[in-house]
Amino acid sequence: MASLTSVIVGAKAKHTATVFWFHGLGDSGAGWSFLAEELSSMFPHVKWVLPNAPMMPITLNQGMRMPAWFDLNGLDRSIAANQDQKGILASMAALNGLIRKEVEEGIPSDRIVVGGFSQGCVLSLLVGLTSEYKFGGVIGCSGWLALADKFPAMASEANKKTPVLMCHGDADPIVQYTFGKESASILEKLGYNIKFNTYRGLVHSASPEELGDIASFIKDRLPPV
Questions:
Q1: Catalytic positions
Q2: Is the full-model pTM beyond 0.90?
Q3: Nearest to residue 205, comparing CAs of 164, 170, 165, 163?
Q4: Contact, 221 vs 136, CB < 8 A?
């Protein structure tokens, strides 16, 4: 995979922490810049990195090319049955490269939060919980744990106790709520520190209540120093 481009929303004050946020299928980093812009006044010390997924053909969408972190064959149980492991691993490697660069530039890994929505949630959970770096926190919204059967062997000890916030609307018609909840249960059974928030009536999108919960999590995990 070629090196990724990113939308960067810089820290408004001295930069001491970074949030990486991974978008969903067909979207871009710019599609989530509202999150960084809304929260930057609350967290002036935080830099936001919103990577752009590469273009690729998506089987679910009749082979149409669009921004994606990996191919999708379906959005029901077929998600788990026929996963694009090669694509997922390639995106994990590319995103890990961006995080490594941030650490090499002087931001301690425990001052980094990784988060994402939908396909981006898949990546935030996998990158966050398999990295050799200990992160400040992991956020996953409206997504699922991919490669669940292989995950225990992939997981690192570094983030076994790192707080993980998972958010899902119970009216999500795209990624079923039960799929997100089951993913949280798998991680809890493996001993992870999971907080799973349910949003009544929320479809496959974010809500003001959810954004407030994300802000509270970041406030707790990346306080000013």
A1: 118, 172, 204
A2: yes
A3: 170
A4: yes
